[in-house]
Amino acid sequence: MLKELLDTNHCFKLVCGAGNEDVEEIKRLVYVYAIAGCRFFDLSANEEIITAAREALDLAKVYDAYLCISVGIKSDPHVHKAVIDSDKCVNCGSCEEICPQGAIHYGKVKKEKCIGCGRCWKVCSRAAISYISEEKNLDEVLPPIVEKGIDCIEFHAMGPDEEEIFSKWKYLNDNYEGILSICTSRGQLSDEALVDRVKRMTEHREPYTTIIQTDGFPMSGGDDNYKSTLQAVATAEIIQNAKLPVYIMLSGGTNSKTNELAKMCEISNCGVAVGSYARKIVKRYIERSDFWTNPNVLNDALSMAKPLVDSVIA
Asked: Using 50, 70 and 90 to split pLDDT, how confident is the model at 53?
């Protein structure tokens, strides 16, 4: 059971991206990280993606892994997709160069690869990039996915819209009996408001059936240093000080330094969720056309992935 993995306090979760619906990329990511020792995978709420992840686990001969799907609200950046205004775009290439997902080519966005990180928007000098929300309709996507069997649902409870947050949270509680995860950050909330929201969301749930994923700085994990992961640890400390009967999982800017910094700061946690950095370090290998046929490619990918996983589970 997933709870047994969380109770070890050495859980590494690979975040494939709530908005990442590139089926082949997901299959390769899950395959590499499963062999590297990861046993918890965060996926888009998409049946094709879940199927691809299970195929990868079968290929890796890993049968004790757990799958989590992520859903959000309209203001959640994880479910945003970039849109480029062709009338304003001058094809300077800045957005294509900075996109960590390789989702932009010649002024066009591949929606299935975009994760809404916002980096392209920041570098666009022509204000040609905006975002649209593609949050999932829970009534449509969850029933068939839950029926097929998943181990966790993660809800991205970010932003100020309390009515939408608590409405969707109620739906999840009413329609799913397993472990729920709340991915949240300080963002637009004060520390007190963050704790108050988490308390209200968990007050009627059984102890230790909820993960609080402390998203320090969402989708910022490009570098492997203490500064990048500082906010994840700081946000975890806020939740830890509230002394709630929940699992704490660090995320947002996480990397191979996260667990070490958490221990230095005496932060108790069930594990670390790594997304941007985990995907970045294997990107060059999983993009290769000979990924499935050249064993050297897998070995090179594992040489990057395994030390990262070991930094949490070892």
From this structure: very high
How many C-alpha atoms does 294 have within 13 Å on its Cβ side? 11
User: Which 3 state secondary structure label does DSSP give 248?
Assistant: strand
Domains of the chain: 2-74+138-313 (3.20.20.70), 78-133 (3.30.70.20)
In angstroms, rounded to a whole number, what is the distance separating the alpha carbons of residues 1 and 312? 19
- CA–CA separation, 157 and 74 (whole Å): 10
pLDDT tens digits, one per residue of 243-274: 999 999 999 999 999 999 999 999 999 999 99
Q: Are 278 and 253 in contact (CB under 8 A)?
A: no
| Tokens (6 digits) for 194 | 């963050």
Q: At what angle do helices 138-148 and 47-60 cross, to 10 degrees?
A: 30
**CA dist., res. 207 & res. 222, Å (int):** 34
Given the structure tokens 């009534």, which residue do they identify? 139
CA–CA dist 186, 154 (Å, integer): 17
Question: What is the reported pLDDT for 221?
Answer: 64
Element (H, E) at 43: strand 40-44
Question: For the chain, what percent of residues have pLDDT higher than 70?
Answer: 96
Cβ neighbours of residue 262 closer than 8 Å, sequence gap 6 or more: 233, 236, 250, 269, 272
Rounded Cα distance between 234 and 244, Å, is 16
